[in-house]
């Protein structure tokens, strides 16, 4: 998920620093770092992340203090010095919530509501069903379901057997879904009964989620103690004409759900889930509440077509927090300015935020307690990497994308991969536990986008090159300045013009084509 010095390096997580410049002028926190667990064997070979801790990012101490110090070149390093890191896996955290308050609501959809105990039971039955299909740890399993409690239970069940979840969009064309199934090497597909008759590639089994749920209750699966190198494969647009898969690891998901890292997350909070199930923003909508004792409230597509209907649904379900794309926020808030006024936190991103639209919403809702946040992050950095709280009295022409989340490193570099001077524009590089495992079956693209920078840290860290141009303003906040390539965003979705061009050129009546965007 990507939105469109004084502070040219910001690292919000514990990391060993080896840059000579840092060593000369800043206190080095000599915290030994472990290495990420090795990836799955076979065609998919995820990147190993040098310098990662052996423990999970955990859930930061709310009293953690941020320390800042300068080093050569006028750059700034900031670090979230949390002294407490819980070495709990994602499934361990979920199990803790089940044990702590089994009757607390975990999921609400249009027809049902499930407690943590009921959701855990459903996911166990699905896990048993997947095991009966012969699913092994590391097997990619496609999930093609709408937003509903069965979708959440299926994801949990697949993770419990060690599978890699491949979310698919039910509305996308069948050939595109088949391309993803083949590229991911999926062994099976979990869907609804209405899709069981659709043609499917040979060698891939297909099962109705209700069939999996029919399995008898069994004792819970053992909770893994090791962190999974990869839990999800999310597909994004590719320059070659076919979508490319981004491998998301467990540590990045834990970082995303870390309470008090960038927004306030309370055990009783309710989070709206309104993103497309194939959109990586679902990582935030699911794990932020479920790993902190909160509740996921599923929002129907019909509710998103009418601002007043959506506002009524949010208020009736006592939703506290939601994320939505900038385009959707602009449309709904313009149609009904009181939309979102009952919430406590609204995160918007996926595109460049309109300062005017946010300002207009604040002015239309002077008594609302709701706070607005601009969140930025590519799929390759597990949904969110930076966040900016937008003040009610904000007066700027552009909303910054803010500062790094916990355990997230930021560098602003020139074309020679050297730090730019204060205030200058450069390319944004990201590091930390959120950085993905690379692209499946795309070794050249992986090598280009996931790089080591020996001049900065002796090559210890893997950085993701975002392709986004940014600068750091006088307040130390990062501002988005555009792209270094042709990539564009349409309603929050990343679009590679090259993929569209390749598809159009397949038509016999098209000799040449050029795809460009317009506002």
Automatic annotation (TrEMBL):
Residues 94-439 form the AMP-dependent synthetase/ligase domain. One of its GO terms (cellular component) is cytoplasm. GO terms for biological process: amino acid activation for nonribosomal peptide biosynthetic process; secondary metabolite biosynthetic process. PANTHER family: FATTY ACID SYNTHASE (PTHR45527:SF1), NONRIBOSOMAL PEPTIDE SYNTHETASE (PTHR45527). It comes from Pseudomonas syringae pv. ribicola. It holds the Pfam family AMP-binding. Residues 1-23 are annotated as: Disordered. GO terms for molecular function: phosphopantetheine binding. NCBIfam families: AA-adenyl-dom. This is Non-ribosomal peptide synthetase/polyketide synthetase.
